[in-house]
Q: What sequence folds into this?
């Protein structure tokens, strides 16, 4: 009797997959990690398009040397909001969405450890997204101090109002920080406590390892950024002087607060993408992940080192020589565990039976661009060279190869790879490959020219520049517009396939993993009976079973 | 076994080819920069050339391997078999951990030496010695040591939104163009009156943020005569991009002459791009957002010519 009523309530609150109105659950306060995962992904992609539009306005301005398309203040607002949106409203939520969807399935859990907290954390995204967007409509416009919000520029308030673009920006970032801390608590607890029987640490897929490593960074680092944002907010609104040099504050202190979190944040972004690469290469090369345990552990090594490299963003700031040398050494070291992963992926692919489906193409393209970004990253770690290119387009080129070249490409790889699982439909390979080609060409056209520009001495964040920089800027702008267009085949593919794609089987890629043992999409509670894991995660070529109870995972009528 | 020898020879040949390409790229790297106008730029360019050569080798090695696999190791259309279940190789993994480790230590050590030689913020505090080379330039100019009798007095750099102003206090000269003698150690005193700015001369390969409330001593040695660009490199608000100035490097005699001539010029209001743009009669693309007003142009003995940094907007069109 109790069971019945609980089920009845679940039916009302959360329409199940297969029910005719099941789309409504995506607009509800659902506590199903799969629904939340897709909510995150779709919301984030919406903001990705907005951030992309802002970028295309910037590229439009930069196609000529003069400041002639938009007002300088508008340009400055554009790059501030572009950076903020792309990080806090696209990259972080999109990766949280992917992690939300996959982690419980991959470790054999029925949901996250704290489902309600999970839903609350998600619904804070549209809230702070709205606050950030609202800043376009306050007098004086949105924040124009760059996504670092360095004081004293961020403390300057020519409007004299209390509610400015900058204060709304700070409120949004603080809420984002709180939401991410909630998410981090949930992920770390879930991975530590909710693993299925037999899912020992060294049987977890590498994606789960990387999510764990990334979320530990959030737990340790985010309080620093959130505190920094609140102190800055107090400086602006309450007359404190933590960072205001005119009143005895120290602006460089804010830079330490900011980068203490915001450098590790790069690893919060790239680690799950390392996880995606580690999942995808074995499937489409039909080989086990090379050096699984070392790859898994190197994620945690990266987490540890990521906490002691932040000053490399401040090599040209008010930092003494000894500090620059010390952080150069730590920054150099972090490339070692990263290099180990790259070599492991190459060894995984080598000698395999490659199948160049869309996810594999995106993963290979992403890896290639990541290697390029790694090379320029080591260059930037070398202090004397960094002194020249610090705050130039060389840096912008470098981190867009990381964030677009590797991360966005990796996100696309993941979305295509798990699309059949999430929606129960197959996507179109033709459109997927077109999307890959446009994205790969667009990314390189857009971001490669930034490297020569930086070497020549073009600073970042400029609305106008000397004519000597025009040639490479025109190419970058054309690449930027191409990148904008490249999202069209993706949207067409995803929306079209979701509505009327071919029905997806349980395991279209013959992949090994708990999520591929259950129907597409999985039922509300994922597993009828918890899987009993008996093998390591990448048994390609070994024909050994992953679980001892494959037939008990679902009730018979739900499997396809 | 003959197969394995053939593999070794092939790998060796590939490595040699990659090394040659990498060395060539390393040489090309010098051409990607502005002219080498300071002693520091020579050191930085050498370091970058080395990094480019090394990076090219690594990039081509990794991507070449991937490309080979993509081209020649695809599964047949109906081939559903798996690849060999190779799960790792300890010696190989040790090698690809140890070599990158050694490489980054090498890069860090080399970079340390270059930075030490550049000595842009003065010599680093060493535990012992190694001061011989930089002792002359390290001596504070107020108390010149015998070896640095001809050391130049420092030049003050004042940054504000969005003006570069240079003062030569000993000659009572103020300018919005930075004139420097060639082949002399230059000492700048960097100060900001409002927000963060960045002193960046690409042709010198040097950069330093200017922190309001601090006075930063900064040094370098120009070695090539010519006119170069100084750009604000730390974002400073609305007219950040317009905050540029010219740096003129000339012979010591010409520099002294310029100082003498400048001292004789009566101070006039300098040209300033930000101020000019802000006060343009009509700015068709303005939003009317209230912004920080540009500082008034300073009174200087020598001003930048407007054509050196023309304003964006209607009046600048020929």
A:
């Amino acid at each position: 009797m109790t069971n019945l009523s609980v089920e009845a309530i679940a039916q009302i609150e959360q329409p199940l997959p297969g029910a005719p109105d099941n789309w409504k659950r995506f607009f509800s306060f659902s506590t199903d990690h799969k629904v939340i995962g897709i909510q995150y992904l779709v919301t984030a992609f919406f903001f990705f398009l907005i951030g992309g539009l802002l970028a295309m306005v910037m590229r439009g301005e930069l196609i000529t040397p003069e400041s002639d398309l938009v007002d300088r203040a508008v340009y400055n607002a554009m790059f501030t909001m572009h950076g903020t949106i792309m990080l806090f409203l696209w990259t972080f939520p999109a990766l949280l969405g992917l992690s939300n969807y996959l982690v419980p399935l991959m470790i054999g859990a029925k949901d996250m450890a704290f489902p309600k907290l999970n839903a609350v954390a998600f619904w804070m995204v549209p809230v702070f997204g709205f606050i950030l967007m609202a800043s376009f409509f306050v007098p004086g416009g949105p924040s124009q101090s760059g996504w670092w919000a360095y004081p004293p520029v961020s403390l300057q308030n020519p409007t004299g109002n209390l509610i400015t673009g900058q204060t709304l920006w700070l409120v949004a970032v603080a809420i984002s920080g709180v939401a991410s801390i909630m998410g981090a608590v949930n992920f770390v607890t879930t991975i530590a406590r909710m693993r299925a029987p037999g899912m020992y640490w060294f049987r977890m897929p590498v994606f789960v390892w990387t999510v764990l490593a990334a979320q530990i960074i959030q737990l340790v680092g985010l309080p620093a950024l959130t505190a920094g944002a609140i102190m800055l907010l107090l400086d602006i609104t309450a007359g404190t002087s933590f960072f205001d040099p005119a009143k005895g504050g120290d602006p460089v202190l804010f830079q330490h607060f900011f980068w203490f979190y915001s450098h590790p944040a790069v690893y919060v972004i790239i680690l799950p993408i390392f996880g995606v690469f580690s999942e995808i290469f074995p499937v489409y090369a039909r080989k086990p992940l090379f050096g699984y345990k070392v790859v898994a552990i190197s994620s945690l090594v990266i987490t540890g080192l990521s906490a002691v490299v932040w000053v490399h963003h401040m090599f040209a700031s008010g930092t003494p020589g000894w500090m620059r040398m010390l952080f150069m050494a730590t920054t150099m070291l972090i490339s070692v565990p990263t290099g180990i992963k790259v070599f492991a992926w190459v060894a995984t692919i080598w000698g395999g039976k490659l199948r160049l489906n869309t996810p594999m193409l995106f993963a290979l393209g992403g890896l290639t661009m990541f290697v390029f970004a790694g090379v320029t990253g080591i260059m930037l770690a070398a202090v004397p060279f960094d002194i020249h290119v610090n705050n130039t387009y060389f840096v912008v080129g470098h981190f867009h190869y990381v964030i677009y070249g590797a991360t966005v490409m990796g996100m696309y790889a993941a979305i295509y790879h798990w699309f059949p699982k999430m929606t129960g439909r197959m996507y179109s390979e033709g459109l997927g490959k077109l999307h890959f080609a446009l994205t790969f060409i667009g990314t390189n056209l857009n971001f490669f020219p930034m490297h020569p520009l930086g070497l020549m001495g073009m600073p970042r964040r400029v609305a106008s520049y000397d004519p000597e920089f025009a040639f490479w800027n025109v190419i970058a702008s054309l690449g930027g517009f191409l990148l904008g267009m490249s999202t069209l085949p993706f949207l067409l593919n995803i929306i079209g396939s979701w509505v009327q794609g071919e029905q997806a089987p349980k395991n279209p890629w013959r992949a090994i993993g708990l999520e591929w043992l259950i129907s597409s999409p999985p039922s509300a509670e994922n597993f009828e009976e918890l899987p009993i894991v008996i093998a390591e995660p990448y048994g390609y070529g070994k024909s050994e079973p992953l679980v001892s109870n494959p037939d008990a995972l679902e009730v018979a009528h739900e499997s396809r | 076994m003959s197969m394995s020898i053939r593999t070794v020879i092939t790998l060796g040949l590939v490595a040699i080819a990659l090394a040659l390409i990498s060395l060539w790229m390393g040489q090309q790297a010098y051409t990607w920069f502005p002219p080498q106008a300071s002693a520091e730029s020579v050191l930085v360019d050498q370091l970058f050339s080395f990094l480019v050569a090394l990076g090219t080798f690594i990039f081509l090695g990794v991507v070449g391997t991937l490309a080979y696999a993509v081209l020649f190791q695809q599964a047949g259309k109906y081939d559903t078999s798996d690849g060999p279940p190779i799960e790792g190789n300890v010696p190989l993994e040790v090698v690809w951990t140890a070599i990158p480790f050694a490489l980054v230590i090498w890069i860090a050590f080399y970079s340390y030496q270059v930075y030490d030689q550049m000595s842009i913020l003065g010599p680093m505090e060493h535990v012992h010695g190694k001061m011989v080379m930089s002792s002359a330039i390290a001596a504070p100019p107020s108390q010149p040591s015998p070896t640095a009798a001809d050391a130049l007095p420092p030049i003050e750099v004042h940054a504000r939104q969005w003006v570069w102003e240079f003062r030569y206090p000993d000659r009572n000269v103020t300018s919005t163009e930075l004139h420097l003698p060639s082949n002399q150690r230059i000492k700048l005193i960097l100060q900001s009156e409002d927000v963060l700015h960045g002193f960046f001369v690409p042709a010198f390969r040097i950069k330093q943020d200017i922190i309001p409330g601090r006075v930063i001593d900064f040094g370098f040695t120009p070695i090539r005569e010519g006119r170069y660009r100084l750009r604000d490199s730390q974002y400073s608000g609305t007219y950040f991009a317009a905050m540029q100035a010219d740096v003129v490097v000339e012979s010591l005699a010409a520099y002294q002459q310029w100082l003498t001539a400048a001292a004789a010029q009566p101070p006039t209001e300098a040209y300033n791009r930000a101020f000019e743009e802000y006060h343009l009669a009509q700015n068709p693309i303005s939003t009317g957002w209230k912004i920080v007003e540009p500082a008034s142009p300073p009174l200087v003995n020598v001003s930048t010519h407007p054509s050196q940094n023309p304003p964006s907007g209607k009046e600048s069109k020929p």
